[in-house]
Amino acid sequence: MNKISDDILFKVEKPARYIGGELNCCYKDIDKIDIRFAFCFPDVYEVGMSHLGSRILYHVLNERADTYCERAFAPWPDMEKQMRDNNIALYALESKDSLNEFDFLGFTLQYEMSYTNILNMLDMSGITIRASKRGDDEPIIMAGGPCAYNPEPLYDIVDFFELGDGEEIMNEVLDVYKNYKGTKKEFLREISKIRGVYVPSLYEVSYNEDNTIREFKPKYDDVPRSVKKRFVVDFDKASFPEKIVVPYTEIVHDRVILETFRGCTNGCRFCQAGMIYRPVREKSTATLIDEADKLLKSTGYREISLSSLSICDYSDIKNLITTLIEKNKEDHVSVSLPSIRINSFSVDLIKEIQKVKKTGITFAPEAGTQRMRDIINKGVTEEQVLEAVSSVFASGWSAIKLYFMVGLPYETLEDVRGIAELSDKVAGEYFKIPKETRKRGLRITTSTAIFVPKPFTPFQWVPQSRMEDVVEKIKAVKYAIKSKAVTYNYHESIVSYLEAVMARGDRRICDVIIKAFEKGAKFDGWGEYFDFEIWKEAMEECNVSGDFYAYRARSYDEVLPWDFIDIGVNKEYLINENEKAKKVQLTQNCKDGCTQCGVNVNFKEGTCFKGALFNQV
Amino acid sequence: MLILKKGRVLRVRYLIKYSKESEIKFVAHLDLMRTIQKVIKRSELPIGYSKGFNPHMAVSIAQPLSVGVHSNGEYMDVVLNEDINEEYIMNKMNENTPRGIEILDVVKVIPVEGTKKKQAMAIIDAARYTIKFKCTNIESIKEKMDDLCALDEWNIIKTSKKSGEKLVNIKQFIHEFDYNVENFVMCIKVLISCGSRDNLSASLLTEYLKQNLEFINKETFVDITREEMYAYKDEKLVTLSEFF
Hints:
The complex is a heterodimer of chains A (617) and B (244). Helix content of chain A is 33%, strand content 14%. With 617 residues, chain A is of the alpha/beta class. In chain A, strands 2-1-3-4-5-6 form a six-stranded mixed beta sheet, covered by helices on one side. Chain A has a four-stranded parallel beta sheet with strand order 15-16-17-18. Chain B has 244 residues and is an alpha+beta fold. Chain B folds into two domains: 5-118, Pseudouridine synthase I, catalytic domain, N-terminal subdomain (Alpha-Beta Plaits, 2-Layer Sandwich), CATH 3.30.70; 124-243, Alpha-Beta Plaits (2-Layer Sandwich), CATH 3.30.70.60. Chain B has helices at residues 29-42, 86-95, 120-123, 141-150, 202-212, 240-243; strands at 12-20, 59-61, 69-80, 101-108, 126-134, 155-160, 164-169, 174-182, 185-193, 223-233, 236-239. In chain B, strands 1, 2, 3, 4, 5, 8, 9, 10 and 11 form a nine-stranded mixed beta sheet that branches. A two-stranded antiparallel sheet of chain B has the order 6-7. Chains A and B meet through helix 1 and helix 9 of A and helix 1 of B.
């Protein structure tokens, strides 16, 4: 056990991040368990503790009598310095034991820019960074989460990946481990046969002269050629914690989070989550109300957030919200929605919610012109946007946030100017409301993010918009905005470029990540620590061209680094969607009829809309 | 909730004494406040709420505690909508506290006809602290301490948001001062002014001692415990629990 002395803690920012001991955290007798598992989030405590998936898996793992799951986060650089100066290895918050004493370290991959933190956390624990050089007596490193759908950039760091819903795979893997303790190679070979597990060391890649992939294949006959993702079939019965850890210190999402459904029916062409989490599966309102009751009781929170990819698509949403509010009226419990679709129905929901607590309103039209919104298959018309904002203004709001992307495929300068025009039109709607009904102080905040093409989307073949073009587009938006009520927020950070390199990177990017880490890269997702010069040098020294990964158009017959993963959605479907994007053609929402993506045919157990109520909406 | 005649709700005030133990001393005041509100919510006590758009729990902490300081004698006022047995409140809350907080005492504040009972934060006059310094050498500490105590004034620059930098004599706020040294640790026990009339923070006193006693190890953490808080009642200092 490490003694984290007060002499260290009083010197660092926010010391409460490092003390543990929060309400509902789990303590077990180390002599009575077989498997020690450290759940690692490669970012600071406040970010990591806000992540719902980690909270679910912490619970699932600790439900096992033979396993003790603890938590570890990336220490902020001031704490890292203190720990390194005082020879303190990175430790788990519960037992304060060093991570190198654990059987497993499980990392969750939420965004590419956290990869160097994984390396730093291993290094701080005294664990060998390269999987190929790591000893049999060192912990087994695993990873999961959305970025694991292109695992290759971490192929020589992570021993195995889990693809799909973690609560399904984890138990099977640990059951096997008990019979293979101490024999890492045999263990990895054995679990490679479990559906959803990918062991990179059991596969080999060869390249063509033009640096594209020639072939990706297993080294042995008993190792599967393709890795099929896993998913919880009956989501209504999925394991969900009745108690969650309640941090002392305020975290980013400091509230009860209810996961209403997995998957999304909209089919936006830029969205990876919309493809990889298919099929859509819902939890019933009764289950959700029950979970909310238990969690409110066990935590003492007075706020519930409903989580999903597109919350207004939950089939019983109105009933769920009114019941939650009505049931907890005396305790003044408020309900919040993280993301909403733009239509009059969602405005009604917001009105319901703000009876308890007034919240801000954010709409995401994603693109400025109808042509562009149709290309990305957003399925929202300008009329719908204006109707919704008008009703929002009429209901007493005067501040609205609008989210857009720039650098989308097939985008023109005319399209980005549309962002400014739409923002101005939104302002116009405000002035149409009579002075005596509208609230004073109109404020519209328009934000743009730079588009990064992601694997398993119809845009996985397209080049990222060049930085210089993006800068020009941002300028175009800036100068086209006329209304004084519109504030334009944007970033021109080169971090998007690096994100694009990593998102569609192959095994050669792994060396770059290691090199960048050795040169001091960490917390790349934080503006104050991101240093592109480091990455530029690292790519040069590894003889890797970033442009090859970010700016290159791929042909449909190229072998993509993630092609061996089967998410259930057919590649032909993605190709067809990209072709439709070029022709500015829409694809309907799957709620209105199946669009033949293939998930319910390829994965026979996957019924779309399991648990949904169809007579409601 | 008990609804009285004319729709008024019964409001009963309680003074609650609790501890913030060493293991959570780095939890900041606002975070501790949120933690306590969650304890009350989990205890399912009929807590009162303020009116308005974002209703607040009727909980107020008597005197904030700095980050890094722990305490055996913190106080808060809470208002319940029912008249509940004090012991029940204490037990119920203790079933729901996280490690590091313990409810030590609950006193119902009985209203006196025609007068308004002041909030705990308004009556505090003094607080008792134990401050532990690590020392680099312990030679002739007694002489050095005697010299310091012999000074008429203990002057230190205090920076505040309102008045900027100001030289203050903090000795006038010290009612009792005692120390002993053991195993290279100097343990100081003080009773100092605290509250809205005269106030000396334990950290400012600590800072003064660090600046004026060269044998204190400046690189190490200074362990400060607030032991108790007091108010004047009939010109005598009594603990807040005894006051009501």
